[in-house]
Amino acid sequence: MSSTDTRKHSAARIGTMVVAGGLILLFLIFITIPLVSLFTRVSPEDFVTALSSPLALDALWLSAVTATFSTVVVVVLGTPLAYVNARFSYRGRNIVDTLTDLPIVLPPTVAGLALLMAFGRNGLLGQYLNIFDVQIAFTTIAVVIAQIFVASPFYIRQARSSFEAVDLNFEAASRTLGATPLQTFVRVTLPLAAGSLLSGVIMTFARALGEFGATLMFAGNFQGKTQTMPLAIYGELQSDMAVSIALAIVLVVFSFGIILVVKYIGKRESVYA
User: Fold this and answer.
1) Measured distance CA(273)–CA(269) in Å, rounded
2) Running along the chain, 273 residues long, what does each successive block of 10 average in pLDDT?
3) Which residue windows are transmembrane per the record (predicted)?
4) What is the C-alpha to C-alpha distance for residues 146 and 210, in angstroms, rounded to an integer?
5) Domain count, the chain
6) Same domain, 34 and 110
7) What is the spatial distance between Cα 106 and Cα 146, in angstroms, rounded to a whole number?
8) Pick from 136, 112, 111: which is nearest to 122 by CA?
9) Which residue among 48, 188, 203, 239 is the one 20 to 30 A from 246 at the CA level?
10) Are residues 91 and 28 in the same domain?
11) What is the pTM of this model?
């Protein structure tokens, strides 16, 4: 390669790096400025005061409790499904996978309306529950159901990938040593997939905590009963902006922390793999 070609190549490389760097910087600014603006609109004293209000405390408590409960339900119900889909081929598996992934791309309002049509007073199932005076829509239970519906794919997808990554030879060795399938699953498969499963649990909890659209449609926005943090942020926009900003900051910090934890777990998994 001649010196002229080398200079042209270097200039093209530098030009590409400058353009790429500019685009990356522009994107980072676009993401960062709205988040930073939240922290500039409320003083530390106002933040503490707003976060100590009864409405904010109710929203924080309800969000933590419902997100925790919904995550537990997703793990209990989703783990067997993820393991079966990771280890066995059966007729209709692609349909099952599609159904479990559907809430990810489904608009939240559609999810909320679907849940309302299923569990509402005159819904497909709700009409029969109503006979026994069991009401689900616009209750705290509805919040949990909405969170389970929208957050479950985040765990099931991660759990399936985790189980697929476990070497079948370890399970086979356990079986040859006399362990039952259940013992093998509990003593071998789960420990080997634990790190990735934990990442799925954390992401599921975060998604449940941030759920808005389906909850609003299916559970309503009632303080202390169905008003989670996202709903409180929406509800207080006109009446108490400080509370909205304070709760938004909590969710931003929590979400940022969740991503860091998941990345740290993923990095440890890759190191010890």
Assistant:
1) 6
2) 68 86 94 93 91 94 96 96 92 93 93 96 92 94 97 95 91 88 90 91 94 95 95 90 93 91 76 54
3) 12-39, 59-83, 104-124, 136-156, 185-206, 241-262
4) 11
5) 2
6) no
7) 13
8) 136
9) 203
10) no
11) 0.89
